[in-house]
């Protein structure tokens, strides 16, 4: 199949609006990757600062992780219930040892959303008859129907509303609002220690700990969603370390295998585990995973964790993050009409831009310069954050290269009147509802 | 890991594993596997008649996945994925018209929730779910609710669940209305034995779903890909649902993959003209999993696995049915559908005894559910392995004091 045929298959058999997007943004077909670089089938190379929003912590195709993954595939990749396997048990123990306090009970699942769903069911049971869940507005916890119930981004929820009724949304970082929302009917608070997604926001020091304390005060459980932040991305092995916070449940996923296999974990405290298993009607299958904990994913995660610890990637992320963030801030100051600010911590960084049209423009021009960025794909955010999430193995030279290309891109974009982007934004907000011929003509797509 | 540390694994496991795994643990440590054989750290080999998976170490799949791992295991989701396009084309070939659009994700569990989300997108205000009793469509929140587990806690989800007795067309018709979001079923129910849903019942379901505009969702985690003796469980009757869920065996025994397949019309009604990221996940449809699934599907077709599964059921019947009835026997009945087999014992205690004796004889079965045992070997189990499964089952029966001579087929 050539490129157009591949897009046609996506259109007919997968995701028609993704196919439109591929056409209009002139995307090519991915082929291979190594370190911080991705190569398409035409041999073009791209510096990857998108990293699937934070997955490729140890660099693409990391030889150490790859070898462990291939080796495990050759031995045993999946496992029937009832059997134990060294890498699976080893990963459970490893995570428990890495995590603070008594976070010792490990549910291994296949995705971040699955991990959130285990946590949701656990808190509803452990704190019954309490029913209310509090989450941060604009937070992200996954898009399975169960996880959608506690997703704070309304553009993802609206088409499926009404969802669970007793979910309250409070502004991220606002302790007073949280405090007002807390009462004796709150079962749990779900919180990202650094708000990710298109609303990247680093809270003030102490915020996460204060949330924990509010939970304790009201008898609610505290669930830290570290799916995006953990394993060094935010400059610490776990972002809760900044505040020495101690959640009842922690959720992990993205960086765990360094981008070599899908895996997630819901890790619970012994105390919570005992509460759950002590319930008179507790059924172990209430908190099960159909196909979680595959030895393949576990062995891959263990190798990746070895690498993260051996290379001290959290420290590296913090050190290089300072450089990247200061570069982004410098450019933000230079282009105040386009960029509001440059939030970030560790190598979880971004540009909060004027509007989605500006985000699209920067992404597109940077793509032409051979740099991939984490586009928010969120045309309903007023000021989305365009994410810069390189692998934690990124070099200083690669950061400089990205900043140089960004400077050139902003110069090019900044030479246009900003009003143009305000007009374009009207189109961007409707882009998936516009007739295809119109979008294609606008973006110079030849339809053959 | 050396054998000394293998001996420490059970304690580590009990310390850290979640209850659903810890409760089922046999205490055995697996170090490698191929075909349907699990090689244990203590040198024994167990035959797997429990996983209902694809089969271990099937070389075309292993090699393809290893090659993809070296190239690009996961995508950064900026460029186009050829591996995903190839998989969705393969799924289109597998499924009957009009099922042509696939949502590829990380597990059968996620796929089922995706199908339900599709139903919710079609009719957001509806909150009534009909489920054919005994169906186990997955272990995420709504799958758990539909399986009747934790209903007292999951009332928070705001869904009303109405169980329908299998093949009870009248109660199905009486329960369907304009508040029904979806009707969920498995083509063959594994509850108190095996129960095949009849064409008349499914035709009624199809008609009712069309009349009331709700989604008909077939969960094929246990019946799809050949287990029921046909490429898909829905082929048993030919009644086509609105969404078909396939699960974990789809990953070729290598990687978790799930998918639901629906029609273009339904997909467009929910996701058409909307942001392509309205549904999806970080790793869903990743290149290594797509390669695993594509190669697995081709392997199933090439090796005529559905026919082979049918052969397994026949071999079981030949072996056990021909014997004379024995009033002393503890085993009451058995049922076969393709390669799916259930065995009924007089009560939970003998069922448990048989399960243990089989394990001792080198055969891993799923833990009994009440007085029923289910055989769920991997899809690619060979005839020779199956023969060994049956021999070990027989040995287990003898040791448990249940003479298999009296098995009677009741389907
Ligand atoms: C904080 C957070 N929680 C949950 C999720 C959901 O994970 P997944 O996409 O693997 O379902 C994500 C994914 O981006 C995330 O960033």
UniProtKB/TrEMBL annotation, chain A:
Record's keyword terms, sorted: Aminotransferase, Pyridoxal phosphate, Transferase
PROSITE patterns per UniProt: AA_TRANSFER_CLASS_3
Superkingdom, natural source: Bacteria
Signal peptide: none
CDD domains (UniProt xref): OAT_like (cd00610)
Family: Belongs to the class-III pyridoxal-phosphate-dependent aminotransferase family.
Name assigned to this protein: Putrescine aminotransferase
Organism: Microbulbifer rhizosphaerae
UniProtKB/TrEMBL annotation, chain B:
Pfam families according to UniProt: Aminotran_3 (PF00202)
Keywords, in A-Z order: Aminotransferase, Pyridoxal phosphate, Transferase
Cofactor(s) for this UniProt protein: pyridoxal 5'-phosphate
Species per Swiss-Prot/TrEMBL record: Microbulbifer rhizosphaerae
Similarity annotation: Belongs to the class-III pyridoxal-phosphate-dependent aminotransferase family.
One MF annotation (Gene Ontology) recorded for this entry: pyridoxal phosphate binding
Protein name, entry field: Acetylornithine/succinyldiaminopimelate/putresci ne aminotransferase
Top-rank lineage group of the source organism: Bacteria
Entry-linked InterPro entries: Aminotrans_3 (IPR005814), Class-III_PLP-dep_AT (IPR050103), PyrdxlP-dep_Trfase (IPR015424), PyrdxlP-dep_Trfase_major (IPR015421), PyrdxlP-dep_Trfase_small (IPR015422)
